Every structure is written in structure tokens, then in C-alpha cells.
Amino acid sequence: MRRLVPVLSALLLAACMDGGRELREPVEPLGDFRLGHAVVTASNLQKGPASRDASQEEWIAAMDAALEERFRRYEGDQLYHLGVSVEGYVLARPGIPVVFNPNSVVIVRVNVLRDGVYETVSEARLHPEAKEITALEAPSAQTLVGSGVTQTKEEQLTALSRNAALQIETWLRRQARAEGWFGGLDIEPGAAAAPSDPEAATAPAGATTPPAAAPGPAPAGQAPAAAVAGG
Length: 231
What we know:
alpha/beta
């Protein structure tokens, strides 16, 4: 029974998440995170009972769009790559509301890798094993009577993929707080590094800064920097 409590709590939390609606909220920095590549696969895809059909290609397209939509918003200084495998799903079919009201769900496995040169993939991974995440459809007037009745398959795919992307972000933030991923959540994107020489950081009292030398002519065949910057 004790083991069921955290599982049920996680499922209840997942059921309350609305990835589409949350995207309208202000973006909060995610440490030094910047998305490099988001690679989605579905080679192990399994369809659950009483589900509409959805191909591997449809799931890959929907999940990739949701990951790009959510994680391209972050502008940290370090690239990280996401590997997401869509493992299983149920897309509710049209049924009899109240009497038979199936819910839609998708299960994914996630890997996070830090960009860089490594001898093995395991060195790049931030965690030893893939994280399994279950995303449910968010409660709404449409899902109350069954999303199979009120939504098309494409709408279900989009909604579930957005909810999965939101749950992935929630997990990343939890790891950043607990394990210090992405340098922790106190890092401001683009923050300048502290100078290594303390004496260079602050000029002595009364010191004056020598005037900058006037720029000389550009070398032959090379345009001045201002001209290049101006297009």
C-alpha cells in the first residue's frame, strides 16, 4: 500500500497538468539549459486497449513538435540533448459518455545528455537510466465526456505530447533543485563569468582609465567592423 501512494500521487499530478495552457505563462529560466537536439523515436511503440490507431510517424511528429515548442524557449549557455522514446499510448475512442469514458495516455522514456566530447554515451548522460514518464490528458469540459467524443486523433496527439513535454520539464526542474543539474536554478542565462583576477574586477580608488586609442584604418581589403555589423 505504501508503494502505491507515490504512484497515485504522481498520476493525480499528471492528470492536472495542461501543457498547452502552461505555455501561455511567463518563461522561467532553467539554469544554463539550452536545447541542442531533441531526438524522438517510437520503435517500441505499443497501443493499449480500446485505443484509436496512431502510427510511429504520427507520434514522432507530434512529440518532436511539442519538445521544440517548449524547450526552444530557454537560452542558457550550455547545450543539452533530449532523447525521447514513445513507448505506449491509448487514444480514447468515441464511446458512450459517462457509461464508457476512456482516458487518453502516453508513456515515454527520457534521456538527457550534456553536449561535449566524451568517450562513451554514459559519460554524457546526466542520469544512469532512462526516466519513464506517464502523461494523461488534462481535465477539461472536453475530456469530461471523453476526448474520443470531443477531439480528433490529431488533437489528442497534440494535447498528450504537450503534456508529456511539460512533465519532462517538471522532472528537469526537480533534478536541477535536487541534483544541481544545469548549474542549479539560480543561474541567469547569459550571466557574465566572474573575473579570475580579483584586482582586475575593481579599479583602485582614484584610478583613472586611459582613453581608448582612436581606431586606425582597416587593413587593405578588409571592411571596418562597423560596416560589417551594419550589413
